[in-house]
Write a structure and sequence with these properties.
The chain is mostly beta strands and about 120 residues long. Helices cover about 0% and strands about 50% of the residues. It is globular.
């Protein structure tokens, strides 16, 4: 299996992510993949794709905030995805590949995505 080298970078000027994947730069507009023209990708704040999707099929990147339910205690935790010592971790509490079920609820740039849907 070939690894998909995908990164995203938050573009502060326009308020959304710009992506780099296998030599191509792009962004999404209303769910449609668009060629990058005029927007810049900053490698200074690039976040790597974990090659994992959450329970809803959404791609998970460094900087995402996820909600995890503990299988034993049924406690719910919110953790941020980080990359440390060659592994993707849920805020240093567990290796991401060992977490069975999780949902992305936000990221470090946009906050809790569910908060914007509460009105």
């Amino acid at each position: 299996m070939i690894r998909e080298n995908k990164f995203r970078s938050w573009n502060q000027e326009v308020g959304y992510f710009v992506y780099f994947c296998n030599g191509e730069y792009f962004y999404y507009s209303f769910g449609k993949k668009m060629e990058l023209s005029g927007l810049s990708f900053s490698w200074d704040n690039a976040e790597q794709y974990t090659e994992r999707a959450d329970d809803n099929g959404k791609e998970t990147f460094e900087g995402d905030t996820i909600r995890i339910e503990d299988d034993f205690s049924e406690d719910i935790f919110e953790k941020q995805i980080i990359f440390k010592d060659g592994c993707f971790l849920a805020s240093e509490s567990g290796v991401l590949c060992h977490i069975s079920y999780f949902e992305i609820i936000g990221n470090i740039h946009e906050g809790d995505l569910n908060e914007s849907n509460k009105d």
